[in-house]
Amino acid sequence: MDPPGGNPKIRSRPGSPRLYQRVVTLGGQVEFVLQGLLHPVWRDLYHLLLMMSWLGFIGLIVVLYLMVNALFALAYLAGGDCIANAQPGSFPDAFFFSVQTMATIGYGALYPQTGYANILVAIEALVGLLGVAMATGLMFARFSRPTARVLFSRVAIVTRLNHVPTLMFRAANQRGNQILEARLWVTLIREEMLPEGYTMRRIYDLNLTRSHTPFFALSWSAMHPIDPDSPLYHETPESLANSNAEILVTLTGTDETVSQSIHARQSYPVRNILWNYRFVDIFSRSPDGRQYINYTLFHDVEPLEEDR
C-alpha cells in the first residue's frame, strides 16, 4: 500500500511489509476504539466543543438555534393570540417573532400584547444574550488555540551514516516564523510476548543525535543511530512487522508569534519505514551564491549507492 497523504518519489521499489493498523493517524489522533469507558458528555462538554470539527461545530450551533426558536414559537402559540399582527395559530409567525426577540431586532410589526407574551419575551431575551456570549466565547477559544504547521516526511528511512545504520526522518516548519526551544521525542511502540504467555505493548525511547534546537525555522533531519544500545539493534523489516511496531514522533516548542506552546505528532508504521535508502538533497546554491531549499523534494528518497 502507498503511504498515506501521497506518494514520495522512490527511485527503486522497496519490499512491501505486511499491513496493520497504526496507533496514531497522520493528524495525530489515536486510532483505537475505546469500549467500556464511562465518559458523560456533559462533564466534558467544553473540551468536546473545542475538539470537534469546524463543520460539526457550526452545524451544532445552527441546530441549537433552530431548536430553541422552535420551542419558544410553540410556547407563544400555547398562549393563544398573544402576538400582535400575527395570524392566530401560525407557527411561522411565532417562529420569526422568536427570531426577532432572540436577536433583539425588534422590527415593530410583531410585538407582544399580553402579559404571558411579555414574560416569554423577557426569558427569551436573556436566553439569547447568554447564547450569543457562549457562542462568541467558544468561537474565540477555537480561533485562538495555538496550532503548529509542521511538515513531516511521509516516510522514515534506515540509511548508513559514518558506517552506522541510522533511522532518519525529516521535519519542516511551514510557517515563516520560528519555533523556539523545539524538542523532538521519538519512541518505538511494539508488541512483545511475555513469558507468562500474553502480549504487552511496550514503548522504548529512541535517542537522537540532536533532540532539541534553540530555534526551528526551516528543516530538521532527525537521526537515531542503530547501535548496540538502540532498541532497533538487530531488527529487520520482517521482525518489526511481526511485532506490530510503529515509530511515534512528537515535536514541541514555543511559537514566537503568539508566545504559546505548540506541538505536532507523526507516526511511521513499518510500511512507511524504508531500508537502505537516503533522502534526496533539498539544499542547492545558485550561481550568485544564494542558498535554496526545494520542498518539492522533501519526501523523495533514493536507494543507497550499493543497492543500485
Structure description:
The chain is of the alpha+beta class and 308 residues long. Helix content is 26%, strand content 30%. It has 5 helices and 16 strands. The strands form 5 sheets. Strands 3, 4, 5, 9 and 12 form a 5-stranded mixed β-sheet that branches. Strands 6, 7, 8, 10 and 11 form a 5-stranded antiparallel β-sheet that branches. A hairpin with a 2-residue loop joins strand 4 and strand 5. It is elongated and about 90 Å long. The two termini are 23 Å apart. The N terminus is likely disordered.
What characteristics describe this protein?
308 residues, 5 helices, five-stranded mixed β-sheet, five-stranded antiparallel β-sheet, disordered N terminus, alpha+beta
Shape: elongated
Largest sheet: 5 strands, mixed
Counting helices, strands and paired strands, the structural category is alpha+beta
Low-confidence stretches: 1-5, 11-20
N- and C-termini, Cα separation: 23 Å
Pattern of helices and strands: HHEHEHEEEEEEEHEEEEEEE
The amount of beta strand, in percent, is: 25-35%
- Evaluate the radius of gyration: 29 Å
Helical proportion?
Answer: 25-40%
> How many β-strands, per DSSP?
16
Integer average pLDDT: 85
Distinct helical segment count = 5
